[in-house]
Structures are given as structure tokens and as C-alpha cells.
């Protein structure tokens, strides 16, 4: 996802020399997959716990409108979890959320897959505005591909073609939309 910087490479090479690692390129690929897989392992969490595990909540100036952006691992698996719909509703009520944007990432070979789901809880106009915004974003362009086969809480779900675009880039765009 284009997160590696020159200093990262220098430090990796330094450590590889000290540890006398044979075939460092293959060792790095293997380690990358292991780390991303471990980070994405949510097997010990239920669908309610997942919503709080890696959560960002943004709001307008007076906090009257709130959008939750939880990182839930593989979004397309999340929506199939037991009690997921009930737990999204419980979570949204507890946190006074208007729209939930499920974001996820899954290891895929030497890269990652990203996905996004947008769910209206209690603000249809904001939900529609967020959908229009993410579909037409250009900085960064998300390159969304709608997953028409997912029918979860009336939301829209997407495979994200631009794996470099993380929540860190999307969050400010949604924050600006709220203000």
C-alpha cells in the first residue's frame, strides 16, 4: 500500500545483515504476510467488540452529527457474523451515531485488499452525501467497485481499488463534509 519509506528499507537491511538473514527479499515478503495476517486476526472478537477495536468517530462542530468509522478487518466477513446487524444498532445507539462507515483490510499476496461499507443509521441526507462523496473523491481517488450482492442494513458496500487510500486519507474528507 505504498507505506514503505527509505529509512524502513535501510533499517531492514541493517537488521538483516546483523541477523545474517539468507534471501532477505523472501524473508521480508513472508514477514509482511505474517504481520498483516496477525493484525487482521479478529477471531477472538465478536461483532460488537470489533466496532470498538479500531474506531474513529468524527462529528460536526457542535457534535450533533456523528459518523463512526470502525476498522473491522474484512468487511465482507463482518456483515456475515452472528448478531452483526443487532450489534451495529446497539453500538450506534450507544455512541449516538448517524452513519457508520465500515472500513477493512485483508492481506492478499504481497499486498492488501481494502473495502468500505456505508450504513445509514438515522440521517438519510448525510448517508447520501457521504456515498456521493466517497464515490467521486479524487484526492485520493478510491476506485470503488460496488458489491451488489451484499445486503446488510440497507447499506452500500465496495471493494476499494486504490489500496493506498486508507482511513487516514478518507477521514479528513468526511470531517470537512460534516463542517
How would you describe what is shown here?
This protein is α+β, with helices and mostly antiparallel strands and 179 residues long. It is built from 7 helices and 6 strands, in the order H-H-H-E-E-H-H-E-E-H-E-E-H. Strands 1-2-3-4-6-5 form a 6-stranded mixed β-sheet, with helices on both faces. A hairpin with a 2-residue loop joins strand 3 (99-108) and strand 4. Helix 6 crosses helix 7 (167-178).
Q: Quick recap of the structure?
A:
With 179 residues, the chain is of the alpha+beta class. The chain has seven helices and six strands.
- Count, helices: 7
Radius of gyration: 18 Å
Give the ordered list of helices and strands. HHHEEHHEEHEEH
Estimate percent helicity. 40-55%
Mean pLDDT: 90
3D shape: globular
Helix-and-strand structural type: alpha+beta
Number of separate strands: 6
Range of strand content: 15-25%
List segments where confidence is low: pLDDT < 50 over at least 5 consecutive residues: none
- Characterize the quaternary organization of these chains: single chain
> Largest sheet, described in full?
6 strands, mixed
**How widely separated are the two ends?**
29 Å
State the strand order across the main sheet. Answer: 1-2-3-4-6-5
Keywords:
single chain, 179 residues, alpha+beta, 7 helices, 6 strands
Task: List the topology elements.
Layout (H helix, E strand, L loop, with lengths): L5 H14 L4 H17 L6 H7 L1 E5 L6 E5 L4 H4 L5 H12 L3 E10 L2 E10 L3 H13 L7 E3 L9 E5 L6 H12 L1
Parallel strand pairs: 2-3
Antiparallel strand pairs: 1-2, 3-4, 4-6, 5-6
Helix pairs in contact: 6-7
Amino acid at each position: 500500500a505504498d507505506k514503505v519509506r527509505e529509512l524502513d528499507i535501510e533499517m531492514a537491511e541493517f537488521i538483516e545483515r546483523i541477523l545474517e538473514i539468507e534471501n532477505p527479499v523472501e524473508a521480508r515478503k513472508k514477514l509482511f504476510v505474517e504481520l498483516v495476517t496477525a493484525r487482521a486476526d479478529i477471531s477472538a472478537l465478536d461483532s460488537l467488540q470489533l466496532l470498538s477495536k479500531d474506531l474513529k468517530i468524527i462529528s460536526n462542530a457542535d457534535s450533533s452529527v456523528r459518523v463512526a468509522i470502525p476498522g473491522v478487518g474484512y468487511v465482507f466477513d463482518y456483515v456475515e457474523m452472528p448478531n452483526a446487524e443487532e450489534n451495529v444498532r446497539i453500538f450506534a445507539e450507544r455512541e449516538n451515531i448517524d452513519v457508520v462507515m465500515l472500513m477493512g483490510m485483508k492481506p492478499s499476496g504481497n499486498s492488501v485488499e481494502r473495502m468500505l461499507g456505508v450504513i445509514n443509521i438515522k440521517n438519510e441526507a448525510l448517508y447520501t452525501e457521504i456515498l456521493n462523496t466517497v464515490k467521486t473523491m479524487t484526492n485520493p481517488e478510491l476506485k470503488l467497485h460496488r458489491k451488489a450482492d451484499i445486503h446488510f442494513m440497507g447499506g452500500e458496500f465496495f471493494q476499494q481499488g486504490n489500496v493506498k487510500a486508507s482511513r487516514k486519507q478518507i477521514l479528513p474528507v468526511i470531517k470537512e463534509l460534516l463542517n
